[in-house]
Amino acid sequence: MKELELKYGCNPNQKPAKIYMKDGQLPITILNGKPGYINLLDAFNSWQLVKELKEATGMAAAASFKHVSPAGAAVCTPLDETLKKIYFVEGVELSDMATAYIRARGADRMSSYGDFVALSDECDEQTAEFLKREVSDGIIAPSYSEKALEILKSKRKGSYLVIQIDPQYIPHKQETKEVFGITFEQGRNDARITEELLREIPTAQKELPEEAKRDLLIALITLKYTQSNSVCYAKDGQAIGIGAGQQSRIHCTRLAGNKADIWFLRQHPKVLNLPFKEDIRRADRDNTIDVYISDDYDDVLRDGIWQAFFTEKPQVLTREEKQAWLEKLDGVSLGSDAFFPFGDNIERAHKSGVKYIAQAGGSVRDDNVIETCDKYGITMAFTGLRLFHH
């Protein structure tokens, strides 16, 4: 198949729409559903991300994509009991593929609502079962077990989009796109993200454990397919906060840091023991946890809205309790798709437990950034590689 007609372009009024190959056949097969323009942008970006994560780490990888940027990305490092609880998979033995997917989806569940999923390896039955219960638009993977495909085809009243991609497909070196009737052409960004990028360490602290190297690679590969400017916090084999598409780098760092903080606050004992009603929907539970963690929860208590979700009035998670809990967050890795222009980014990163950083370097204020890292004992590598993505 050289050409595939789409439902519409970015918006329903943008018709007709299609994808096609100038040479050769399309590397995908639509196993179920009808794709849209944004579906395929998410699919092709997310597939590249998980393919590169697998190549860099040797581990099964998954991504959760929304609007051409990842909401989460992860490899299959084991889940501890707390993470199993906040990811709603207690008491379950997980396959590698299911583990990676659950980590990717669990990083930022609100942003992952209605996502597009990418898997580096075959989608097995267990992964399909977990995916079936989530609100999602589609999935791309190199293959599907017979049972997994049957489960996915039943999702969304039979309209769930299932794409199989040829894992051996290699695109042309040159890529083009058209904007306002004008064609742009550039060399494809085929830069490999490996530990070689982490060798130049200008900070006083030089220690870079193997786990940190893995997490920095995850952060950098995630950023390679995130709309710029972008910053990614990673820990224990997964992204825990992604700040995408901001005009100011400090805003990326704050946005991603706030998401990392929420990820960690969800592990607070008060959050783990919230008295939810049994019939509350998954999305409502995620939204309620977000409100409970936020400073707006006092309004919820005052207005009596809590009665819609809880069997009894929960105790407030005070600002002091939140701060004390966040001070326990440590060993976080952070990647940036370009250099940090000021030390304020490091100050914000430090507040979310960042101990390891990989960024391009090359700012006229590199000395200030290095000095700020030294202030907090942070190890920082200069990769020399910018990863803008538009």
Automatic annotation (TrEMBL):
Q: List keywords of the entry alphabetically.
A: Transferase
Identify the Pfam families for this entry.
AICARFT_IMPCHas
Q: Which GO terms describe its molecular function?
A: phosphoribosylaminoimidazolecarboxamide formyltransferase activity
EC primary class: transferase
User: Which InterPro entries does the record match to this protein?
Assistant: AICAR_Tfase_dup_dom_sf (IPR024051), AICAR_Tfase_insert_dom_sf (IPR024050), Cytidine_deaminase-like (IPR016193), PurH-like (IPR002695)
**What superkingdom heads the lineage?**
Bacteria
**Which Enzyme Commission number(s) are listed?**
2.1.2.3
PANTHER family in the cross-refs: BIFUNCTIONAL PURINE BIOSYNTHESIS PROTEIN ATIC (PTHR11692:SF0), BIFUNCTIONAL PURINE BIOSYNTHESIS PROTEIN PURH (PTHR11692)
Q: What is this protein called?
A: Phosphoribosylaminoimidazolecarboxamide formyltransferase
Tell me the organism.
Anaerovorax odorimutans
Q: What is the lineage of its organism?
A: Bacteria, Bacillati, Bacillota, Clostridia, Peptostreptococcales
